[in-house]
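Side project, low priority. Logging it here so it doesn't get lost.
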Amino acid sequence: MAKIHIAQFAPGQIVKHTAFGYRALIFDVDATYSQSPEWYDIMAEGKPRKDRPWYHILVDGEDHTTYVAECNLEICHETDCFEHPMMDSLFDPAAHSVSDYAARFVVN
């Protein structure tokens, strides 16, 4: 039986990418890698483990999302306003604290 790893982060948390330094807001979590093998071969630098949690994230100040392995994320302690065009559709702007946002619905 495969070991299940508990995700360290949850939707609504602001995190920072440890290699690239950008802030991000988690909007969904996969228990294990769930994208295509082709995407992994092209995009997953360092080839992080596929049997650990991966996160769907909004990138602060950009208009795209990305998919990141848990080992590449850490809690972000910055309190600047988070900006992304998908924020209002995924999170309730009136219900957030300095470090997290309340999701409008459960994605996964």
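Brief comment: The beta strands are 14-17, 23-30, 54-59, 65-69, 73-75, 91-96, 101-103.
Revisit when time allows.
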